[in-house]
């Protein structure tokens, strides 16, 4: 990355998204931050430093205007956009028959529709620029390897759509040198697990530990710059899907 690279990172006011934004900034890139809570987003931006290389766009990615505002901020502040990281979304465990219609709609809108709409806005701009670009989506290894003790059918279904969208767009956009990849995290230590003994999940991975947000950020940076990789889902799961200890 360099000072000429501009990345949009959705859901970047905390957790994985915040560390992804920090990683891009550490590499010298400009970053457009996004989060639903404007005050929380401003606090996160202040903590990152580098104010001259940060723009902030509060709003839910489930609304098309948020994606358009993210692109507009990247263009007006930094002259364009090169990378989109679709990180924003929600995820929680709940038994299948207890999931309400409102909760189901929330996962589909926030995780899948939001990713779709934001990507549309960015791809339109990438086409105008005519120099290609990189899109990295955040999925989950639970799409490939579910856990009986962690029922999460609604969020996993919505993330499954993100996995499928990644493959489809990689094929559709390849001729324009727009690469589309995905990072599939395993169990990661994030604010989503507040109040839970997250380390107790470490035993499901071959490496016998949970992951850290910095390890997801490293994978995102790699795929963002990997010029000969598209349509790939990179599992960052300590061997969760590969086998058992």
Concise synopsis of the structure shown:
The protein is an alpha/beta fold. It is built from 6 helices and 9 strands; from the N terminus they run E-H-E-H-E-H-E-H-E-H-E-E-E-H-E.
List the topology elements.
Blueprint: E1 6-9, H1 15-26, E2 30-35, H2 38-48, E3 54-58, H3 64-78, E4 83-86, H4 101-129, E5 133-138, H5 153-173, E6 178-185, E7 188-189, E8 211-212, H6 213-225, E9 233-236
Parallel strand pairs: 1-2, 1-4, 2-3, 4-5, 5-6, 6-9, 7-8
Plain-language structure description:
The protein has 245 residues and is an alpha/beta fold. The protein has one domain: NAD(P)-binding Rossmann-like Domain (Rossmann fold, 3-Layer(aba) Sandwich), CATH 3.40.50.720. Helix content is 41%, strand content 17%. The protein is built from 6 helices and 9 strands; from the N terminus they run βαβαβαβαβαβββαβ. The strands form 2 sheets. Strands 3-2-1-4-5-6-9 form a 7-stranded parallel β-sheet, with helices on both faces. The protein has a two-stranded parallel sheet with strand order 7-8. α1 packs across α6. The chain starts with 5 loop residues before the first strand and ends in a 9-residue tail after the last strand. 46% of the residues are buried.
What is the C-alpha radius of gyration, as a whole number of Å? 17 Å
**Assembly annotation:** single chain
- Briefly note the CATH topology name: Rossmann fold
User: How much is the average pLDDT?
Assistant: 95
CATH architecture name: 3-Layer(aba) Sandwich
Provide the CATH superfamily.
NAD(P)-binding Rossmann-like Domain
Number of strands: 9
In the residues, how many domains can be counted?
1
Q: Trace the largest sheet across and list its strands.
A: 3-2-1-4-5-6-9
Strand-pairing-aware structural class: alpha/beta
Uncertain ranges: none
Helicity, as a percent range = 40-55%
The level 1 CATH classification is: Alpha Beta
